[in-house]
Amino acid sequence: MNIKHLRSFVVLAETLHFGQAAKRLHMTQPPLSRQISALEDALGVTLFERHSRSVVLTAAGENFRHNARRLLEDYEFAVRSAQSTARGEMGELRIAFTMCAAWSVLPDLLARFREHCPDVSLKLKETLPKDLHADLLSGEVDVGISFPAAAADRLSYQEVLRESLCAVLPAQHPLAARAAISAGELAEEAFVTFPGSTAPELHEAVSDCCLHYQFEPDIRLETNLQQTIVNLVAKGLGVSLVPESMSRMQLEGAVFVPLEYSRPVAQGVYWQPQNMNPSLQRFLSIIPPCVTDC
Amino acid sequence: MNIKHLRSFVVLAETLHFGQAAKRLHMTQPPLSRQISALEDALGVTLFERHSRSVVLTAAGENFRHNARRLLEDYEFAVRSAQSTARGEMGELRIAFTMCAAWSVLPDLLARFREHCPDVSLKLKETLPKDLHADLLSGEVDVGISFPAAAADRLSYQEVLRESLCAVLPAQHPLAARAAISAGELAEEAFVTFPGSTAPELHEAVSDCCLHYQFEPDIRLETNLQQTIVNLVAKGLGVSLVPESMSRMQLEGAVFVPLEYSRPVAQGVYWQPQNMNPSLQRFLSIIPPCVTDC
DNA sequence: GGTAATTGATGCAGTTATGGTATTGATGTG
DNA sequence: CACATCAATACCATAACTGCATCAATTACC
To answer: Do A191 and A217 sit in the same domain of this protein?
Structure first.
């Protein structure tokens, strides 16, 4: 049975007049008569009583009218819904991101995306940089937001932010009041960083800053999470170099001081080019041009 | 778009294999390929990704699958529902009845009908005998349960119960303790009855009882409702003759005493023969053979 | 590495379904 | 009694669908 038949039935049930119903359906009366008759045959139920001068719904017709109307509405909805999903306006987008991204580019990206596609449900997953590419390649997530990685062969990448490192010092540190310092002034300090295996790019940027002033940082503590680093610094356990956006973190006992020189650290979006999730294309289309903040 | 297309889509979405889906749909593979393709064209959306060795749903396809499944279920439901309604197993039946019927035949009829057609919603309306036929003829109700009336030309009638009258006496009345009395013994009493205009048949039966003993009842009070009659008798304001089934009414101060002779009073079901409500036929089919209780 | 098997798409022919025009049949109306 | 209205039917042309045979691409296997 055709959707068209349902539509014909509903219109006829409203007009109770074959001629007028046919006109509203942009067809002539005879085919409508046959359609209704075919519908009745298919259901095995008489839907209309045809009297000499009037057409009225039977009890079964009255019952079917309500259900048929709802069916038509639901059908229209299903069609529109599928189309929206194909355009990426509906659906699900799974995003993995590092803690650094959460403090820098993520909030803005999510806000922009939400504005354009409010009906896409976002599944967010905070992860360590080293796990991010595996999640993307396995299809676990659609988007990854992290530092640019050397070994990201089968992934596309778009840079979003390029920023400097800054120093984090305990509040009572002699350099804490300065407007800016040079990394070289920290040559004798104890460093808190995170392990090179977790985020090689960041680790390398920190090393590069120090090498620029001809010293190797004295790494006393290594921890996985940036937040923890800042917390340890606040407790006076050392100093550290972190991306500038981390300075949004207001933490008593920790002071962020700009560096006179630092190698820039980038943040960007990764995705699998053959990923067909339409919401992914939507997401990529709202990425703003890269902000260079160094 | 055809319901068949939706069914094809759902089966294919489950099997993800054109050949097997076609087999399950009792058709060959080429038409299925074309049906899906036609569905995709109609929606303007690609529902499946055809890879070399596999077929997978797109995001839009996944979305459409859920809606399409629900649509099919709702469609099946709508069809079955219309069929049930046509068979009278669903729908609405409006029943008007007198108070006498409420005390005698109505409970049993409703119980039997409920058992056979639990999904028919019953609209009950208590009414005075004189209004019942007008309600039936105007189509206000489908079924009327009342006394047989002389002027019920265009209505069909089926008798359900034939019972005797009995006397209602105040508890302190000298005859109240008797196992049975004759109406003649009430010749000198004050009668409480209801007006002949409200229920001519009942009024006549009472008159007939009295005439059988050569007296005219001394009617002191007239009231519309049987219940009120019994209440007035209980307060000692007179005696009355009422259908035996009223004796189910347990009321302190009123005693029901069988009569040695009484003209039988009948109760029955009225309906309009041209009423096409399928539930009406169901109702008529469950009317038990007439019980003669005199 | 070449052949067979698998799988979905396509070409073609026959059948079915659908829509339009003209007409009929039944029933009210002036 | 002629006429108007309204749904059903007859008939024809076209569109849609089905099945069969086949193709093209990929994969499995010896």
So the answer is: yes
